[in-house]
Specification:
five-stranded mixed sheet; single chain; Ferric Hydroxamate Uptake Protein, Chain A, domain 1; about 725 residues; 3 domains; Maltoporin, Chain A; Immunoglobulin-like; 46 strands; mainly beta
């Protein structure tokens, strides 16, 4: 009898223990394109009341100790919809429910660059703009700079038409103050510079612009923000397809492109190439480029994947100089080759995700000026320079060949139900060959080592907090630590959500190779230079209205850029000098953006940036434009854009109005010009389906015929039109 009672007691205890453990619900949350969505809040409502859980790596979630019964599941993610709200039965043991969210009329955007992993923008406290594949296709931009010029907080400057040197300024920072990533691979030349002028929007799936210092994740270069270009990947259910197109128009514009994409079994691919030529309406202004891009992926079982991404471009451009002031240089030119290669291995299982990556980026530019074009005196209107300019021929050419090899490991861990931890380390090896090919080349090299940690946590179901920091070891300036903190507070959820956000961070940037190692007759490098630094802050609010048919956002920001490298003359007799950490600037202002989708066919967008930038400590010995109290060079105080798109599968119409205000500039020719006038530019486009897979496209640029110069001395292109045909087979694309 005692033995029987003991057995019964054990069985009752085991049953009670099973009831205490309860059931378990697991699953994966994905976006409409199949992208996993970590760090989203799921609400389970059932017999045990209400429970909130957080999705982890690869969008996985797990709820344990659930009382048996039916549970309703909701997701608090503005810009996404989960309709109808699913219900799932949970008993003792495990139940599974995978969720796929559909987009709201103004959809939520997924950003990678802000956290080094997929994240819904509404859960982050940072300010960011994402241009998705739909918006990129609608824009019909001739260059990458034309694509991003209407984003809030971004100003661009181009030395003429398509292909010549071009820069992007994020929140008043110098053009070298934003880290440029291509498929996660850093491509900035050592010291942060990257000429965006020749970059074309080839096979782009997404462009991310993160505003605010991000050195806590990326180390050097990310003083003002991050610009990330992502090559298109085949969709989850995409059949094998081919696409091709050709267009022609004003300024000798000729472009052909084509490619293929698709998915078969565990493999997916997307590849494309283009060939472009244009004369840019200038003597010796011709530009031509051959470019290619590819993204190849493979699933290695259920938990692992491998992806290879590659981009390359070979360009040549005439460089006639500031033709607005006098005779063009008819023999000067530039040849450039860019190569980027990235390989990523990822394994995610349960609450853990491992990622290993290697990358290689090379920029090889050769500047040629074989003949002496003779002296000239710059003139503009009734102004004449007080001295004569002389051509400086370099028959052998000036070489700027830099390479960056990068490698790293990253671990994502869901700790409990409220934390998503990211830990990682990076190694970057930089090398170069610089100088005149008629003399021994400078061959510098430098290594960066960095380790970072980031915690994304949920407090109380409404407050998303991101804390992070990085320790960076650089061969030039030693070891530095950089922190960042950001928060997003959901005042109300649902499709009419209101979110407050704030962020603060610090940034660092290494010197250029020439600033550290240069040896020439007029400038000596300074190996003791400190890193240039930034401190950035912003405070913003996002409001969604009319069931997510309207999204409005406002952000106040303040950026401080310190220890900026400046050239200082050390010998007044020979004008020889060196580089010192001297300059300091400040940029503050307001960013506004608006997106609306009144109907399925109509989308509207607007953006405005007010930038109050000022030189605090002067670093310039040569030009009054750099004097203390002066506004920042080539960064307008006011800039606004308005974009509209209407259409569907058969036909579409769109237009963009860009208004750029007056800005500080310099002719650098002794003419005394210190300001550049504002301008208004209107671009329009139309698309018409002719038959299945074939469509006609017409694009008109600068329809108002505005006469302006992004950079003083370099006239922008006049009114122009181009038209072409495109063909697609298979899909969807």
């Amino acid at each position: 009898m005692r033995r029987s009672l003991s057995v019964v007691t054990c069985l009752l205890l085991l049953a009670a223990s099973a009831r205490a453990d309860g059931g378990r619900l697991t699953g994966v949350v994905r976006g409409p394109d199949g992208t996993p969505l970590p760090h989203l809040v799921l609400t389970l409502t059932g017999p045990a009341g209400v429970r909130k859980i957080l999705t982890g790596p690869e969008g996985r979630y797990q709820a344990t100790h659930l009382a048996p019964g039916d549970y309703a599941v909701t997701v608090d993610a503005p810009g996404f919809r989960l309709q109808p709200e699913p219900r799932v039965a949970v008993a003792d043991g495990e139940a599974r429910l995978d969720l796929t969210l559909s987009p709201a009329p103004v959809r939520e955007q997924i950003v990678v660059a802000a956290t080094r992993g997929d994240a819904a923008l509404s859960t982050l406290g940072v300010a960011a703009t994402v241009l998705d594949a739909t918006r990129i296709a609608e824009r019909e931009a001739t260059s990458f700079l034309a694509l991003v010029q209407d984003a809030p907080g971004v100003a661009v400057a181009r030395a003429g038409g398509i292909g010549p040197q071009g820069s992007a300024f994020v929140r008043g920072g110098e053009s070298r103050f934003a880290r440029i990533l291509v498929d996660g691979v850093p491509v900035n030349t050592p010291g942060g510079a990257y000429d965006l002028g020749p970059v074309l929007p080839l096979e782009l799936e997404r462009v991310e612009i993160v505003r605010g210092a991000a050195s806590s994740l990326y180390g050097t270069d990310a003083l003002a923000g991050v610009i990330h270009l992502v090559t298109r990947r085949a969709g989850p259910a995409e059949r094998a397809s081919l696409h091709a197109g050709a267009d022609a128009g004003s300024f000798g514009w000729r472009r052909v492109e084509g490619g293929s994409s698709g998915r078969r079994g565990a493999f997916d691919w997307n590849a494309g190439m283009l060939r472009l030529t244009t004369d840019n309406e200038q003597p010796n202004g011709a530009f031509e480029q051959t470019a290619a891009a590819a993204s190849l992926g493979a699933r290695l079982g259920e938990a692992s994947s491998l992806r290879l991404a590659a981009r390359g471009a070979s360009s040549s451009a005439g460089t006639p100089g500031p033709t607005a002031y006098g005779r063009p240089d008819l023999d000067a030119s530039s040849e450039r080759d860019d190569r980027t290669l990235g390989l990523q291995f990822r394994r995610a299982r349960g609450r853990l995700a491992h990622e290993a990556h290697v990358g290689f980026a090379r920029t090889n530019q050769l500047s040629l000026n074989p003949k002496d074009s003779g002296p000239y005196v710059p003139r503009f209107g009734d102004r004449e320079a007080p001295f004569t300019f002389f051509d400086l021929p370099s028959p052998a050419g000036l070489l700027d060949d830099t390479r960056r090899l990068s490698a790293g490991y990253q671990l994502e861990l869901q700790a409990g139900s409220r934390h998503l931890l990211t830990l990682g380390g990076d190694l970057e090896r930089e090398t170069g060959r610089l100088g005149s090919r008629a003399e021994p080349l400078l061959t510098p090299e430098r290594t960066n080592l960095g380790a970072y940690v980031q915690d994304r946590l949920l407090l109380g179901g409404r407050l998303f907090l991101t804390l992070g920091g990085r320790v960076e070891r650089n061969d030039n300036y030693g070891t530095r630590a950089v922190p960042r903190a950001a928060l997003a507070f959901r005042l109300r959820g649902g499709e009419n959500a209101t979110t407050l956000r704030a962020s603060a961070g610090a940034g660092i940037k290494e010197p250029t190779f020439f600033e550290s190692f240069g040896v020439s007759s007029f400038a000596k490098g300074n190996p003791d230079l400190k890193p240039e630094r930034s401190r950035t802050y912003d405070l913003g609010i996002e409001r969604r209205l009319f069931e997510s048919r309207l999204r409005a956002e406002a952000t106040l920001f303040r950026h401080e850029y310190r220890d900026q490298t400046a050239f200082r003359i050390t010998n007044p007799a020979t004008f020889e000098g060196t580089f010192v950490n001297l300059g300091e600037t400040r940029a503050q202002g307001l960013e506004l953006s608006l997106e609306a989708a009144p109907s399925e066919r109509l989308r509207l967008a607007a953006a405005y940036t007010l930038l109050d930038g000022e030189v605090i400590v002067s670093g310039g010995d040569f030009d009054p434009v750099y004097a203390v109290g002066r506004p920042l060079l080539r960064r307008p105080r006011h800039q606004a854009s308005f974009t509209g798109h209407w259409g569907g599968d058969r036909a579409a119409l769109g237009g963009t109005l860009l208004v750029v205000g007056r800005r500080a500039d310099s002719d650098f020719s002794g003419l005394g010009l210190e300001h550049n006038a504002g301008y208004t530019r209107l671009d329009a486009r139309a698309r018409l389906a002719l038959r299945r897979g074939l469509e006609a496209v017409v694009v008109a640029e600068n329809l108002l015929g505005a006469e302006y110069q992004d950079v003083l001395g370099y006239p922008a292109l006049a009114r122009g039109v181009r038209a072409g045909l495109r063909f697609r087979s298979g899909g969807p694309r």
